[in-house]
Design brief:
By secondary structure, the chain is α+β, with helices and mostly antiparallel strands. The protein contains 27 helices and 34 strands. The strands form ten sheets. Strands 10, 11, 12, 13, 14, 15 and 18 form a seven-stranded mixed β-sheet that branches. Strands 2-1-26-27 form a four-stranded parallel β-sheet, with helices on one face. A hairpin with a 2-residue loop joins strand 7 and strand 8. Helix 21 (about 705-725) packs parallel to helix 23. It starts with 15 loop residues before the first helix and ends with a strand. It binds zinc ion (2 copies). One zinc ion (ZN) binds near residues 171, 172 and 188.
Length: about 850
């Protein structure tokens, strides 16, 4: 700033508020500062942090997430990239409705007010976002494209309606979200049990992409293995066989069993149906006693579903008294209904093979159902399985009983051979699965199949604060899509929000009643709104072209920026958000909108922040507010602490003292530069910085102390640079910068030439810039640097200068030269002797002998043996 007086004595006290407010104001006056460039010739880099829900206040988890992304963005700018670093608001959802009820504020007003507050907090912390691309999902400019996508999905048969269960509170007379069901009861009516009701709802056919979503996980090597495993399990592909069993009475129903182990079917001693299986219902209809028991099983199941742990439920069932025919051998096996069989898993019916399945074994032991072995281990396998446990093992009744044939049951591995299995006896398990599946198909009672655990995505919400689904219902034409020209279907305002009596939109006649786009007659609008995961499935494409009024985004622009180079967020989004957005990308590719198959190249999931060994939560009273930390220590200290306390992937145990420590370090940096800034002339800084032009100042021409700090600088540049390449242990980077600062102080005390100190100081400020941007900018200006720090080249290290100096020390044994050891200068004598004794060559001369003398002169080692 030109009007500042040059003669002013520099204030040495570190005042983060004064510095940070000054720079925050300057940065906000310059919207082009962090703007991504159009038509740039630079390489691109798209770094993105997951967008927040605008609750009204940032929490420390946000600060940590954004501090990581911001450090990376700043580093990439300094490395000459065209960086896209945007931010937005995932602003639809239930909390806005709840707030509307408790404070009488309309959801839109509440949401936009919160966005303002949080944006102020972000700006105060100095995050470098390109706000010209801000995306707010609750505004029609954005959500009209959700509707546009919905129409595209509908045209292609990828959006459809089907009946599905919802949580229903009979007192509220409304649907509850899963998070509003607490211990099976309504969150507002603690005395009221939540019921399950069937409603027509909208679904997206994510299962059409199940195979590809699974396969392409192998093409994401830069995603955490943990996330890929979670997605694999969620998609849950299993190869198996469908087999039709017929109830044994004339005209009896056929039901289909799914099994991954058809090779064991000769060992099936019962079949088990889900309590909600249609055949169960049919059998129960004719048998009041059975009906009663089935009702109990259904109740137990829904209870277990609420607790979220169906696997932990105690397994039990009821014999229907009916039998079904195993089509492979004509055997009649009893039909049971069991509480651990789910209708929405596989076919809702299984065959039970106790000898070769853990769960079936447990069930058979409980109810005394026959356990029949049909697989014997291959040589070697059984011996291992029986060792030491033969007393507990259940012996099969009819086998050639050698040790290897009689494993402990259940014997569940595929490494075996079939016995007692008719014409398939003698086949290996794997071979049998193939042949027996083919046999079923040939005889028209089954086939090989692939099933997925992944279900279609139910996107209907009976809520107000979401994207209206652009469909109408006409008595004559049925379900009719809203024509594209009539988009957006605007979410009405001034809606009376109550949480009772169904979706609030059904009580807005101007919204509800419309005309049919096809026949012009009266029609009714869809009153369900979309799941907010629709917004987050594609919002990051909108950032590339945020103001496009004709399309969700321009394909060419998206093609330049995508895939996202680095995405950063919480592990809690490993499944839903990150599967839905992969699905959305594949769909957009199939309609020609994008070229990439996957949205995200590299994914990073940061660790959680805890305090006093617990997750921060209001109820525990251990929440640390970012505002309070900024107030006490400033934005730089707060964000730098979140990077310094531990590596970003680890859980961070918050310590206020730690923030104070970072603050003291920054004050120390400030003090040093304030004192030495005047030494920063162009001539002096070039002498030792990374951009050394003056080759006369080679390491050999420097004093050892000066050489030491130069070496430390280059080692520090190397450490920080290497960590930015992917390891991201910013905690060790920051420690390295701290060590460098200590050495600067030591060098200053030793009277190292100003020419050397100034260069090191300059690069130190650059190294600090991604972590403490405010202070770095302030110091940069203090140094009289004319360039914008954000675009100043990142310092480069010289491997030669980073190298530790080494000296060679000859080692004599009984006066004869036997080896040479290499040590750093200044290594203590006893360490040199130890190293000499550890030397292989030296060892061969002293082995078996008595060492009588060890001498080190600092230039020579002599060992005397006898
Ligand atoms: Zn209720
Ligand atoms: Zn019509």
């Amino acid at each position: 700033m030109p009007q500042e007086e040059p003669t002013i004595v520099r204030e040495e006290r570190y005042d983060p508020h004064q510095i940070e407010e000054k720079w925050a104001e300057r940065w906000q006056r310059d919207p082009a500062l962090y703007a991504a460039e159009a038509n740039s010739t630079k390489p691109k880099y798209y770094v993105l942090e997951m967008l927040p829900y605008p609750s009204g206040a940032l929490h420390m988890g946000h600060v940590r997430n954004y501090a990581i992304g911001d450090a990376l963005a700043r580093y990439m700018w300094m490395n000459g990239y065209n960086v896209l670093h945007p931010m937005g608001w995932d602003s639809f959802g239930l909390p806005a409705e709840n707030a509307a009820i408790s404070n009488q504020t309309p959801p839109r007003q509440w949401t936009l007010g919160n966005i303002e507050k949080m944006k102020r907090q972000m700006n105060r912390l100095g995050f470098a976002y390109d706000w010209s691309r801000e995306v707010t999902t609750c505004l029609p400019e954005f959500y009209r494209w959700n509707q546009w996508f919905f129409l595209r999905l509908f045209e292609r048969g990828l959006a459809y309606r089907k009946k599905s269960k919802v949580n229903w509170c009979p007192k509220c007379c409304t649907v509850l979200a899963n998070e509003q069901v607490i211990n099976g009861r309504c969150w507002r009516h603690e005395d009221t049990l939540v019921e399950q009701r069937e409603l027509e709802q909208w679904f997206l056919r994510t299962t059409n992409y199940a195979d590809e979503l699974l396969r392409d996980l192998d093409r994401l090597p830069c995603w955490p293995e943990k996330v890929r495993t979670m997605q694999r399990n969620w998609i849950g592909r299993s190869e198996g066989t469908l087999v039709d069993f017929r109830l044994d009475y004339s005209g009896g129903d056929v039901f289909t069993v799914f099994t991954t182990r058809v090779d064991t079917i000769y060992g099936a001693t019962s079949v088990q149906l889900a309590p909600e299986h249609p055949v169960t219902a049919e059998l129960a209809a004719a048998d009041p006693d059975l009906r009663l028991k089935v009702t109990q099983l259904i109740a137990e199941q829904s209870k277990a579903k609420e607790s979220g742990d169906i696997a932990a439920v105690e397994k039990h069932g009821v014999d229907t008294g009916h039998v079904a025919v195993n089509p492979y051998n004509g055997e009649r096996v009893p039909v049971w209904v069991a509480n651990y069989i789910l209708m929405d898993y596989g076919t809702g019916a299984i065959m039970s093979v106790p000898a070769h399945d853990d769960r079936d074994y447990e069930f058979a032991k409980k109810y005394g159902i026959e356990i029949r072995q049909v697989i014997i281990p291959n040589a070697g396998e059984g011996a291992r399985a029986t060792q030491g446990q033969s007393d507990k093992s259940v012996r099969p009744t009819q086998t050639n009983s050698t040790q290897a044939d009689a494993p402990e049951l259940p014997f569940t591995t595929l490494d075996g051979t079939l016995v007692n299995s008719g014409e398939f006896t003698g086949l290996s398990c794997e071979e049998a699965i193939k042949k027996m599946s083919a046999y079923a198909e040939q005889h028209k009672f089954g086939k090989a199949t692939v099933t997925f655990r992944l279900k279609d995505w139910g996107i209907s919400r009976q809520r107000y604060w979401g994207t209206p689904i652009p469909m109408v219902y006409c008595e004559k034409d049925g379900v009719v899509p809203v024509p594209e020209k009539d988009l957006p279907v605007i979410l009405p305002e001034n809606v009376d929000i109550t949480l009772t009596g169904g979706s609030p939109l059904t009580r807005v006649p101007e919204f509800l009643n419309t005309t049919c786009p096809r026949c012009g007659g009266p029609a009714r609008r869809e009153t369900d709104t979309m799941d907010t995961f629709v917004d987050s499935s594609w919002y990051f494409y909108r950032y590339t072209d945020a103001h496009n009024g004709k399309a969700p985004f321009d394909s060419k622009i998206a093609a330049y920026w995508f895939p996202i180079d680095q995405y950063i967020g919480g592990i809690e989004h490993a499944i839903l958000h990150l599967i839905y957005s992969r699905f959305w990308t594949k769909f957009m590719r199939d309609i020609g909108l994008v070229k990439n198959d996957e949205p995200v190249e590299r994914l990073f999931t940061q660790g959680m922040i805890i305090k006093a060994a617990a997750k921060m939560s209001k109820s525990l009273g251990n929440v640390v507010s970012p505002d309070e930390m900024v107030e006490r220590y400033g934005g730089d200290s707060t964000r730098m602490y979140t990077l310094f306390a531990t590596s970003p992937d680890r859980e961070l145990d918050w310590q206020d003292d730690g923030v104070a420590g970072v603050y003291r370090f920054l004050a120390k940096v400030h003090r040093f530069v304030a004192r030495n800034a005047q030494n920063n002339s162009v001539e002096t800084q070039l002498a030792a910085s990374s951009e050394r032009a003056d080759k006369t100042l080679q390491p050999t021409s420097l004093q050892p102390e000066a050489r030491a700090i130069q070496r430390k600088l280059h080692q520090t540049i190397k450490r920080v640079t290497d960590d930015f390449q992917g390891r991201w242990h910013f905690n060790t980077c920051i420690s390295a910068v701290m060590e460098l600062v200590n050495e600067l102080y030591a060098a200053e005390a030793k009277g190292i030439p100003v020419s050397v100190l100034a260069g090191v100081q300059r690069d130190m400020v650059l190294l600090l810039a991604p972590f403490a941007p405010y202070l770095s900018h302030e110091l940069w200006e203090m140094l009289g640097e004319p360039s914008n720090l954000l675009k100043t080249p990142w310092p480069k290290y010289d491997p030669e200068l980073a190298k530790e100096e080494k000296i060679e020390i000859p080692v004599q044994v009984n006066g004869k030269l036997r080896s040479v050891v290499v040590v750093a200068p200044g290594t203590p004598d006893d360490q040199i002797i130890q190293q000499a004794l550890a030397d292989e060559k030296v060892q061969s001369y002293v082995a078996g002998k008595q060492i009588v003398k060890k001498i080190c002169t600092g230039k020579l080692v002599n060992i005397v043996v006898r």
